[in-house]
Amino acid sequence: MTLDRPGEGATMLRTFTLLLFCAGLSLGVTPMVMPSQPELWIESNYPQAPWENITLWCKSPSQISSKFLLLKDKTQMTWIRPSRKTFQVSFSIGALTQANTGLYRCCYWKETGWSEPSKVLELEAPGQLPKPIFWIQTETSPLPGCNVNILCHGWLQDLVFMLFKEGYAEPVDYQVPTGRVAIFSIANMTPESEGVYICRTHIQMLPTLWSEPSPLKLIVAGLYPKPTLTAYPGPIMAPGESLNLRCQGPIYGMTFALIRLEDLEKSFYLKRPIKNEAYFFFRALKIHDAGHYLCFYYDGSYRGSLLSDILKIWVTDTFPKTWLLAQPSPVVQMGQNVSLWCRGPVDGVGLALYKKGEDKPLQLLDTTSIYDDTSFFLNNVTSSDAGIYSCHYLLSWKTSIRMTSHNTVELVVVDKPPKPSLSAWPSTVFKLGKAITLQCRVPHPVLEFCLEWEERATSQKFSVDGDFIISNVEGKGTGTYSCSYRIEAHPNIWSHRSEPLKLMGPAGFLTWNHILNETIRLFLIIQLVALLFVVLWIRWKCRRLRIREAWLLGTAQGVTMLFILTALLCCAISFAGLCTGVLTEETEIIMPTPKPELWAETNFPLAPWKNLTLWCRSPSGSTKEFVLLKDGTGWIATRPASEQVRAAFPLGALTQTHTGSYHCHSWEEMAVSEPSEALELVGTDILPKPVISASPPIRGKELQIRCKGWLAGMGFALYKEGMQEPIQQLGAVGREAFFTIRRMEDKDEGNYSCRTHTEKRPFKWSEPSEPLELVIKEMYPKPFFETWTSPVVTPGSRVTFNCSTPQQHMSFILYKDGSEVASSDSSWASLGASAAHFLIISVGIGDGGNYSCRYYDFAIWSEPSDPVELVVTEFYPKPTLLAHPGPVVLPGKNVTLRCQGAFQGMRFALLQEGTPGPLQFRSASGNSADFLLHTVGAEDSGNYSCVYFETTMSNRGSYLSKPLMIWVTDTFPKPRLFAEPSSVVPVGQNVTLWCQGPVHGVGYILHKEIEATSVQLWGSTSNDGAFPITNVSGASIGRYSCCYHPDWTSLIKIQPSNTLELIVTGLLPKPSLLAQPGPMVAPGENMTLQCQGELADSTFVLLKKGIQEPLKQQRPNGYRADFWMPAVSSEDSGMYSCVYYLDSAPLAASNHSDSLEIWVTDKPPKPSLSASPSTVFKLGKDITLQCRGPLPGVEFVLEHDGEEAPQQFSEDGDFVINNVEGKGIGNYSCSYRLQAYPDIWSEPSDTLELVGAAGPAAQECTVGNIVRSTLIVVVVVALGVVLAIEWKKWPRLRTRGSETDGRDQTIALEECNQEGDLGTSTDSPSSVSQGTSVEQPVPI
């Protein structure tokens, strides 16, 4: 390759980099440092002379590694293999000498190999700071007027960065950042901003020690018009051939530059002009010369032009494939027109159409025709036009590139139009009083549609728009329907009939509820009437009967009236519901067996049909078996469910016998699922046909069209009838894609279809999907739809969907993933319902999905509600949530939250604590998603978490991520520094200094007073902030503070923590500590603790056990410090000690004094009293009472109730009690007194009772048993007497049964008529027994 490359190329490259940044072009290349590049920096423990001891640190940006590599001058290498994986390692250099000078870089080991090297660190001669790195970064486009950030990297901590401009003595700006990078901002770039900028650094404590200058030349691009870039002989060439790239501009005498975007540093070429153009000649092309090229030109002051358009150069020995598409379909009727749309990845090349079996091309398209978006047309096709077509590139120059096979399209010419599609709205099940609309659809204009009812061969309906309204009066609407059509060109030819569609009658759950409600109401009315008849009958009988037990009649009447009132109340409630209506109706969702998912997988991504496997997966964890069916009836195979609840059905290489429509079912123990969506295999060289769907379009609203493919990693294209090229295209986004129409208008109505293709060129395409007709209809406004709780739920939760509208007397339908799952019908629910509640009592893994609702009356439907994505968590591992650039953000800035999951192709949701629903949703083809919080404010502060879930299988989600706290503030919160176990540490011991604050995920840095640099740095990967100091010595003494140390560049202010004094003891003789008036005082009194030392001019420190920091410090004039403690309380009780240190040696303290225990109480706390082995005396055994108190050095006393003087004294609190003659039984308590204060006794313990065989407890137990036994005997005797009397009566009653019956009847008559026959004498009992009584009717 013969290209001029002047020595100024390196400087010009930096200049051009600025031009690219400021231009902000969408070139497909991101001009920024690779995220895998490690960071290299210097640390030294000699801040004023860092070259005396140098350590190089290498840190990986985002992951831990097992190997690190240090490179010097690209030849010498130093390896480090740490004992465990880490994110950073150190390379010790030692004192800098001439042998150590050179260029250093570092790398770390990734799973795929070594990472990109770090930036080059140049170590020069001793006594000099390394030269900083100077580069630019822009915030916004465009050209003049853009903002530019200049970054200067200084390699050391705590440097002063100075920015100079050539020609100016004073610095333009300076900074003292906390890290190693300074950011200088130049706002609103103008020509006056051009020039050479210089960055230099120096040490804060040594301002005379400067680094070498690092220059950077800035120019303003875009001051001249852009040039044109062309290729000769053409943009696609074979390796080894020559190529000329011509860059032509409108101005003479300029210098031209050529850039290949794939490698900016290695492909920057300069060329002196020939008049107003320059030629860049490639003598022998290589494969790596292929790429995207552009050019520009500039004058002697480095003022540049706009960039040329990008020119793609192909260097290949084989042409990339073209792909061919037939519109509107490869199946066409005779006499119609068809267009063959041929495209390829190479622009600026003609195309030729070939038919299999013919040598010459049928039609040609030159480059101008292709730019005009034309295609190959076949008019008025006949059977002779049927065949296999392909298209090839048509080159206008000579080349040795080989032609390869191309994508083909088989054109099928039929004599009968293809079958239409038939669907039912709103569903295929009739509801009471509702009609169903059958919709017959085709993707092209139709003269007339015909609907046929298979149960009645003579029943036909005709329609121009394809809509047929079917009612179910007297059940005459149920049955199987199909439709056909005819077109205007051939009005006598009817198409093939559609697939049959079956309409079912009202046998659903909702209608049975209606029947049940009506039955209950009728039953209540019948019950009310029956009870009224019973009351009237009882009143009529009471006129004839005079029952002695009048309370029986009153009770019967009361019970009857209670039933009447209950029936009236139920009827009132029922009729009130009928008359006035209730505003809500709650319906439990009875989920059907979830529909499985069917998809295909292959190990030949460019030719999937060579080896295809069908997979069926169920969202239900109870699935036992899967079955695959072909064409609705053909039984292919069954497979048991795996642990992932899926099964594979290998098909192998596709043949014509495999073509057809496939779907699968999942089997559970008691149910079979609905069939999956049909996967249609249409050929051996064509991808499966996708499925297209969309919600009803709404005027002025956004509409999403879903295209569901069957293979992962496919691209998607959306077509509209009448347009030859795709109106939208999407890359590989999983097995489905969503095309968006931003604002639906009348012009967007029409028939749509979609296709899928392989990801890599040359594309392999699928058949077009079935057409989807989008028609805007008048609708009610969409309802309000929400869940009462968050839509992200755990299994077993209760979920209630609320669907409401201001409209009255509406019925509601709930949809899941586009299918109806429940409804609230006004024909059986309360009239006037304006809302419906759909309830899932216990959510299962398969209940997740996209839910929505609609409402309707007899003729008009509402718009669909906004969808609610119900995510059922705890199925996949939890993700991680990170903030970029960090969790602390300035108000008004942006922050990106990245949710990293474990699987690819998932959908992610971001949640904020205190917010009922997810804030954002994102779909990702990888395993992570970024959520942008734009222009954050104080209200955005809080805990965030995320979850990911799969959209194809009932939204099965992961566990929630660990919460991440986001702070929106201009100042980091102040952390707290404390020592553990204490800030007063004996010499030789270990101590840990803890720096902790509310912000997590940010590193901390520890500073020591007087020292210029930090002593330790704790990496940001740990949230503990622990700084251990082992084997404490006099060198550890000092005053410490800490602050946050973010690992990203930030303008947020950082506050230091509190100052911690680390006192080291054991260096001076110990003092003594006394309490005045004594160690025990009452609450509210004053106390003085006196610490007596042995040396004058000392500072005394009072310490308390359990408190990490000193209580008080005092600098007295003499040898003693008095620490006054006014109005002490119980919290002041504890163990105290003191130390002191000399003013000449601060914080180098003495040994601890002896500990002094302080008690703040009126009385010592009461002790506890227990008995061993138990509180019950056994024959010949003693009991030991154990009295225990909280204080040492005490004397215990035991007291026995009933005795005036204490019984025993003990120092250990053990008292032996015997039960001679029963004298040990009774209640005991104990107390104690301090030996130092014998007059102060504690409160007595709780009473403990000892019992024995002759004790009161035993007597009570015996009396209780006697009473219980006596009662049992009395009850048993009484029962025996009653049974004996009844047994004695039984034989006589049995032998005189007939006489008894007659006597009982006579007695009943006398009792009923005694009031009416008071003056009439009655027969004697003897006469009755002789049979002289008169028979009378006896009431039953």
From TrEMBL:
<dbReference type="InterPro" id="IPR013783">
    <property type="entry name" value="Ig-like_fold"/>
</dbReference>
<keyword id="KW-0732">Signal</keyword>
<keyword id="KW-0812">Transmembrane</keyword>
<dbReference type="GO" id="GO:0002764">
    <property type="term" value="P:immune response-regulating signaling pathway"/>
</dbReference>
<dbReference type="InterPro" id="IPR003598">
    <property type="entry name" value="Ig_sub2"/>
</dbReference>
<feature type="domain" description="Ig-like">
    <location>
        <begin position="31"/>
        <end position="106"/>
    </location>
</feature>
<dbReference type="GO" id="GO:0016020">
    <property type="term" value="C:membrane"/>
</dbReference>
<feature type="domain" description="Ig-like">
    <location>
        <begin position="320"/>
        <end position="391"/>
    </location>
</feature>
<protein>
    <submittedName>
        <fullName>Immunoglobulin superfamily member 1</fullName>
    </submittedName>
</protein>
<dbReference type="InterPro" id="IPR003599">
    <property type="entry name" value="Ig_sub"/>
</dbReference>
<feature type="transmembrane region" description="Helical">
    <location>
        <begin position="520"/>
        <end position="538"/>
    </location>
</feature>
<dbReference type="GO" id="GO:0034711">
    <property type="term" value="F:inhibin binding"/>
</dbReference>
<feature type="region of interest" description="Disordered">
    <location>
        <begin position="1312"/>
        <end position="1340"/>
    </location>
</feature>
<dbReference type="GO" id="GO:0038102">
    <property type="term" value="F:activin receptor antagonist activity"/>
</dbReference>
<feature type="transmembrane region" description="Helical">
    <location>
        <begin position="550"/>
        <end position="578"/>
    </location>
</feature>
<feature type="transmembrane region" description="Helical">
    <location>
        <begin position="1266"/>
        <end position="1287"/>
    </location>
</feature>
<dbReference type="Pfam" id="PF13895">
    <property type="entry name" value="Ig_2"/>
</dbReference>
<dbReference type="InterPro" id="IPR036179">
    <property type="entry name" value="Ig-like_dom_sf"/>
</dbReference>
<dbReference type="InterPro" id="IPR050412">
    <property type="entry name" value="Ig-like_Receptors_ImmuneReg"/>
</dbReference>
<feature type="domain" description="Ig-like">
    <location>
        <begin position="418"/>
        <end position="483"/>
    </location>
</feature>
<dbReference type="InterPro" id="IPR007110">
    <property type="entry name" value="Ig-like_dom"/>
</dbReference>
<keyword id="KW-0393">Immunoglobulin domain</keyword>
<feature type="domain" description="Ig-like">
    <location>
        <begin position="781"/>
        <end position="873"/>
    </location>
</feature>
<keyword id="KW-0325">Glycoprotein</keyword>
<feature type="signal peptide">
    <location>
        <begin position="1"/>
        <end position="28"/>
    </location>
</feature>
<keyword id="KW-1133">Transmembrane helix</keyword>
<feature type="domain" description="Ig-like">
    <location>
        <begin position="1069"/>
        <end position="1138"/>
    </location>
</feature>
<feature type="compositionally biased region" description="Polar residues">
    <location>
        <begin position="1319"/>
        <end position="1340"/>
    </location>
</feature>
<keyword id="KW-1015">Disulfide bond</keyword>
<keyword id="KW-0677">Repeat</keyword>
<dbReference type="GO" id="GO:0006355">
    <property type="term" value="P:regulation of DNA-templated transcription"/>
</dbReference>
<keyword id="KW-0472">Membrane</keyword>
<feature type="domain" description="Ig-like">
    <location>
        <begin position="877"/>
        <end position="946"/>
    </location>
</feature>
